[in-house]
Amino acid sequence: MPLGVRLFLVYFLFVGLSGWFVLSTVMDEIRPGVRQSTEETLVDTANLLAELLRDDVRAGTLDQGRLPEVLRAYGQRRPGADIWGVRKTQVNHRIYVTDANGMVLLDSSGAAVGQDYSRWNDVYLTLLGQYGARSTRETPEDPDSSVMYVAAPIRDGERIIGVVSVAKPNASLQPYIERSQARLAWLGAGLIGLGLLVGGLLSWWLSHSLRRLRDYAQAVSEGRRAELPGMSGGELRQLAAAVERMRTQLEGKAYVERYVHTLTHELKSPLAAIRGAAELLEGEMPAEQRQRFVANIGNEGARLQQLIERLLNLARVEQRQGLEERVPVPVHELAGELLQAQAARIESAGLEVENRIAPGLCALGERFLLSQALSNLLDNALDFTPPGGLLRLDAERLGDWLELRVFNQGDAIPEFALPRLTERFYSLPRPATGRKSTGLGLNFVQEVAGLHGGELRVANRAGGVEACLRLPAVAD
Known about the structure:
Blueprint: H1 3-59, H2 67-75, E1 81-83, E2 86-88, E3 94-99, E4 104-107, H3 121-127, E5 133-137, E6 146-156, E7 159-169, H4 174-221, H5 234-281, H6 287-319, E8 327-330, H7 331-341, H8 343-349, E9 352-355, E10 362-365, H9 367-384, E11 390-398, E12 401-409, H10 441-451, E13 455-461, E14 464-472
Parallel strand pairs: 9-11
Antiparallel strand pairs: 1-2, 3-4, 3-7, 5-6, 6-7, 8-10, 11-12, 12-14, 13-14
């Protein structure tokens, strides 16, 4: 299972369980919280009524006053109030008054006058001087039919002469409870969803960053050119820098070892030729033969110098992970400059040169490297073009790419050699001399093409050989 998925699952379990626990706890507290607030209001109402009724209860004139009429009018009121989205269309309080013995003197519902309520906790406890309250179901089987009763004593000095009770059905509170629970459920679900979204994005970002580092390390281990991915996190940036330092140190060590081995191998032949010629020159020989051995030493020395220079150029290109610049490079003008530099060689061989590259075509890249790459292709083409042969350069825009082609008239490349042409130190004998080159030219061109994101292809064509260098084109 990917690391990002595992991190998200852990985060999901933590946030989900924590959110569910907090949400369920708060939801469970809504109902008692609303009822506690309502009970506190009933306490205030009962004590207010106790003070208003004290004189009538003490004088025994409670049924003769206006209170029964007021209570009946109160029960018929239609408030029409909109309380936080809940419509209130009727009053819900029931009020009854008992004497010091618990007998009902007045009932706003008119149903309990004359009954003995001394056994109910609200009246019983209040008459004992305690806080009297009770909750009773009107329908025993229905828990939602419960009614809260809160009582307050009616006092004559220190003596309790009666009790006033105020009742409110819990069913009238249910719409507010349900509304609060619904709003809280939506809000809680939204917060949990937002938390999970943030967790998912964080897991994706971390997994994506680690995957980019993994791909970079894998590319380095396979010897492919790759750019160090940019990281925004502090620890991830430090990890990327550490991987880059490790790559540089390990690659540098392996690179030096490989080049020492290859350079040692390639230097053996010219050094052996120079040493043999020098030993022969120590003895007596005709002047013409001596001159030939001296020329051989000069040729082998030039070969050594060319080998070292090309190795250095190739080493610089292979060690680079990217281009130093990306500028438009006009290929027609670049090809013209290189052909002009080879004018003496072209003229001495009597070659026919055609520069068919359309003016205005531009490749996007580093001018110096492209110049070096095209120069290597021209050198190869000149080496294999017979005297009086044709050398042709052309280019074509294909979407976002520019294909630069160098064709030279000459013998076809053997099929066995085609896949190996870009191998380091692999070379075919030159037709004019029968000698091989350093075998680094096409390898250098391939490295330059890779740096630009392009490619090099060499193939046989009718009447000769064509090298095609594919490069990014300048956007229109």
